[in-house]
Amino acid sequence: MTRRYLRLLAVGSLFTLSACAQQTEVHQMQQSVSALSKDMTKLNQETVKITQQNALNAKSASGVYLLPGANTPARLESQIGTLRMSLTNIAQNAEGMRATLRIQGESNDPLPAFSGTVEWGLIQGTTDNYQEVDVKNQLINAPASILAPSDVDIPLQLNDIDPKQPVFVRIHDIQPVNAQ
Length: 180
Description:
32% of the residues lie in helices and 42% in strands. By secondary structure, the chain is an alpha+beta fold. The strands form two sheets. It has a four-stranded antiparallel beta sheet. The protein has a four-stranded antiparallel beta sheet with strand order 2-3-4-7, covered by helices on one side. Strand 2 (74-78) and strand 3 form a beta hairpin.
């Protein structure tokens, strides 16, 4: 009787352990699917932003549009050469949105000191027929670079804006600053 009881107990324990292992595997699979789903949603949102940013830049006669969430640089032909611009370190704060404007020169020459204008606001409508709303602007200045190729990071505080809304940032009028 004791052997039968032990055998029954051993077989029951084996089934219980195998059931636990299957539940653990199912739970791990569910976590993997959930993480993959979040990643796909983020990629889809980023793709939409990149498409919108490209459409806005294709129509832009002056300056370059950058959309938070696009995570893709845009090129600007300026008076100081071809520049690649992107927004990084985007975060919401009490005043609005904080971001870093990264400007990279595409030539092998250091960037001269320059100034430019940053505009920001909301976009209403579609990328084919849109309107810029609540537009604000600020002047930016960057010192001359010593190294080449040059990267310049300019901290921005974009007041009264929420990065979760359909926000645009446009940089234009990049021109060299003459040293005096």
